Design the sequence.
């Protein structure tokens, strides 16, 4: 399904075309951005953390806020589980984890319920054990 671009995405796309037309400006722009990043590194990182945290909180609320197996609601132990497997692989890659959170933010409720659920850490381990995905030590 093709998603309508947001105003921000359109702006970014125009900006990118603009930059690609002028490599020198692109180069300068990267230098400026790198310098800004170095100068404000802590703030950027804090904002990124807060953003990830907010995405996770929103995803947990949207998924019902409790473990699908035992019903525990303690947010500290809840994990987002990919119902059709592959969860472990995806979760270990930060970028893809964020992709999952964005998926949950943007997709329809029906889609989300088909693909994701909340499990607490214990139920998640039990599920993995039953599927033979647990570590052997
Ligand atoms: Zn549970």
Sequence:
């Amino acid at each position: 399904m093709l998603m309508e671009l947001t105003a921000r995405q359109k702006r970014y796309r125009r900006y990118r075309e603009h930059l690609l037309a002028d490599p020198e400006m692109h180069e300068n722009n990267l230098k400026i951005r790198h310098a800004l990043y170095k100068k404000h590194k802590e703030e950027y990182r804090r904002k990124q953390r807060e953003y990830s945290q907010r995405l996770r909180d929103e995803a947990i609320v949207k998924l019902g806020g409790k473990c699908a197996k035992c019903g525990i609601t303690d947010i500290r132990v809840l994990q987002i589980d990919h119902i059709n497997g592959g969860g472990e692989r995806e979760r270990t890659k930060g970028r893809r984890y964020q992709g999952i959170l964005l998926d949950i933010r943007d997709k329809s409720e029906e889609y989300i319920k088909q693909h994701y659920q909340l499990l607490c850490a214990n139920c998640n381990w039990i599920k993995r054990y039953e599927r033979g995905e647990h570590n052997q030590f």
